[in-house]
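In this supplementary section we document a worked example of the pipeline. Step one takes a protein sequence of length 814 as its only input; no multiple sequence alignment statistics are reported here. Step two produces a three-dimensional model, which step three serialises into structure tokens for compact storage. The input and output of this example are shown verbatim.
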Amino acid sequence: MNLEAAEAVLRGRVVDEKEAPVAGALIVARPAANGAGAASAETREVHSGLEGDFILALPDAGDYLVSVERVGYYELKDHPIRVEGPQETTLVVNSVREVFQAIDVSGEPSPVDLAGMQKEERLSGTDVNAVPYPASHSLQNATRLMPGVVQDVTGSTHFDGAAENQVLYLLNGFNITDPVSGRFRTRLGIEGVQSLEHWSGSYSPEYGQGSAGAFAITTDTGTDQFHYTATNFIPSVDFKQGPHLGNWTPRAGVSGPILRGRAWFADNFDGEYDEAIISGLPSGQNTSSGWVGSNLLHAQASLTASNILYADFLVSLEQQNRVGLGPLDPLSTTVTLRQRQYFAGLKDQIFLARGLVIELGFGHNQFFTRQTPQASGLYIFSAEGRSGNNFLTATQASARDEGRVNVFLPVISAGGDHQLQAGVDADRPSYNGNFSRTGYEIIGLDGVILSSTSYQGSGVFHIPDAEQAAYLLDTWRITRRLQVMAGFREDWDRQAGSFARSPRVTVAWSPDAGGRTRISGGYSVTTDAANLAVFQPPLDQTAVTTHYLPDGTPGSQGATTFARGAGPLELPRATNWSAGIDHQLGDRIYLSANYLRRRASDGFVYVNTLAPGAPPSELPLPAGVLDGAYQLTNQRFDSYEAFAISARRTFRGQYSWMASYTHSRALSNAVINIFNDEPLQVTPYLHPMPWDSPNRLLAWAYAPLPWKNWAVAILADARTGFPYSVEDQTGLVIGNENAYRYPLNFDLNLHFERTFVFHRYRFAIRGGVNNLTDRANATAVSNVVGAPDFLHYYGNEGRHVVFRLRLFGRTPGK
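The serialised model returned by step three reads:
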């Protein structure tokens, strides 16, 4: 319909409760006289632009009911508007917040929307706080509520079968990935989370440096009303093996106006004290402890009606004692770990005429880690496990300065509507290290020493880097039922010395006029960052290994060296094919089926040029050959394929449930010891990743009970056990890499919660049982052939009771 000729035109803006524009909102108008069953031909819909603006041509003047939906906001339902000729209006939607009030509020809107084209898994702040996942104070643990996300036996998180350093981690739009390891290390309080999202497949080229996608954390912003929460503010006592202070996870948050109607803040503190008792170790040597404290301050200010400023400041401090303590790793082998992180970010959004938007951002991130062993003795590897002292003392300091500019151009009409977006990004990561190692010995089954490795030279180094990127994205809405997203990104890294180009395209189509079904598919090339740890070995210490004769006397000796090679390196890349069907079935019940295929190539791996075909080894340095001359190459290849189906329903009052099944396969040709960040060998075949889990059933719910103010929260998570290798007394893998598997892993957690008011303060108290079936869920195995306890599993999780008390602030006066 021609907007200029239309007699009834509704135009305006969609904003949130702080008058910030809401882009990508679905605005639907239907004649009021026809009621809920209005003919689709008379119903009109449009999506808001980057400034929240929209123009909607209506069939006739008269009374209309207007609804607005956008993920992350409560639905505005059937807002009455009378239209007589051209009409201006402002539609306000409220951000989804975790609330515990006597009134009901609508849940999140339907995800069956052409605007959400990339493969996405999303958790709201309510999901993160309500579902009883293990160690539910940890934001990292909350990610396992997403289908396709698993945690390995070390607690590391893997999205869609990828290594941790193959994902980009974002906090309110800023890159918070550790520039050294490429991992997610940031500690945040879960009460301050508004949403968690993982985009994969053919996601927007605005985000790079993550071949397996981007993980985005959005935190709460205050409103014109003060809110505060406090959780687990009373310490607990544990009576296991005598009374002592148990795990304590106090959290607190406060938010509100800085200047009512103009500026707001949200501040969230997260603390933790842990004292763990490890089964299978002597009393007095079976405990580990640690503490963490972090605080995030997020602020937003409307400088003018067209200029919004955002600011973040994060500080995190941590100390962990006896790290690595386990059934096969006694007290003497553990280390003390001290870490801290500082982050500051500033973002300015400027809204100009005709829908032109400019976004400027700058962020600074600092990480510091110090690892100290218990003593300076040698580390011992034997069939019975590890002993002696950890051989590494290390100090690491890294930083990243990030600057970016994004431009959202006015909508162009040419065969449909084109929303163009472009941007540039420049980063300066750096890494300073000071490593000092003693050495380790390999002891055979008969107790005789097999080899000894010591380290020589300086482990002090500095690694600077520079990264630049530019992208262009065209979101082309051909019709209201067909949309194409096509984009291109180019990344450059100084240390690698190369460019990486990333084309991406996604198509989404709604086969029915009512928009209850979306079919989408896409192709993309994605890249990984050149994490600075990759370039460390050539600048680090040199290992010298002595092999011993059968009678225990020293034999031959050789050195292990590392080099980069002469030419530039390629940045790791992956090709992704994705397809999905999403359907709304009934009232707020959503079904989805997704397929993802990722082939990653050019991954960084050090290969021994003296013995490229040597058998795989599980030791820190492979001991199958005497000398090692390792060269950094692009020979790593990963493969991931997954099919997932899921169903989800949201209720009024922020209650919801989700059930999913995922069948997947994660393979690699790089031999990966899960305790070693950088693989040192490649094989001529693909083998399962240490976190490969072909089958997983995941379900959770947070639902009201028939009794007033009572609710139930439940989690059921069953998956195939992770793979592992068996080895001989020298650390060489016997048979195929990762040919064995842990038993089935199953968690069933059941909690009950009651909200109540005490002296005009609103509380929620929760109690329940984790691992209700008392499943062992092993995390360690004796894998040396010939050992007395060969293939014996360790790490009994056990059934345990959990309590939580939360304060939600003062109730309104009557």
